[in-house]
Amino acid sequence: MQKRVFKVLIFLIMMVSISSADGKKVFETYCWGCHHQSAMAFGPSFTEIASKRSAEEISAMITDPKAVSKIFGYKRNAMPKIDMKPREIEAITKYILSYKPDIKKGK
Predict the structure, then answer these.
(1) In sequence order, what are the residues at sequence separation of 6 or more whose Cβ sits closer than 8 angstroms to the Cβ of residue 69?
(2) Angle at 104 between CA 103 and CA 107, to 5 degrees
(3) Interacting residues of 90 by C-beta distance below 8 A, sequence separation 6+
(4) Which residue of 7, 9, 15, 66 lies most exposed, with the fewest beta carbons within 10 A?
């Protein structure tokens, strides 16, 4: 009985946790037309975003880009509002932050 409970618990943890594969899927669904992971495209790269923004700022920019652009002092906003589920926002935010340069290694 204890093994069964343990297996169920592990399964639930795996289902709830958000993996980088989830973030990559969200990227491919919503973001790839304007953003690339490490190269400048129409929008900034994830490397650039991750080096400048916190998780909260990234999530806010996704949910309300017009308002956040004003807060950041941008004169205009090119990013459209994208309707994502909270889980998708969390996944793409973690995925973007996975491209944060490692300052210690000089990358």
Answers:
(1) 61, 76, 77, 79
(2) 50
(3) 18, 59
(4) 15
Distance from C-alpha of 34 to C-alpha of 10, rounded to nearest angstrom = 37
19-100 homologous superfamily: Cytochrome c-like domain (1.10.760.10)
Whether 30 contacts 79, CB under 8 Å: no
HSE of 7, CA atoms in CB hemisphere, 13 A: 4
pLDDT in tens, 82-94: 999 999 999 999 9
Domain spans of the chain? 19-100
Taking residues 52-68, what's their average pLDDT? 95
d(Cα 66, Cα 76) in Å, to the nearest integer?
A: 8
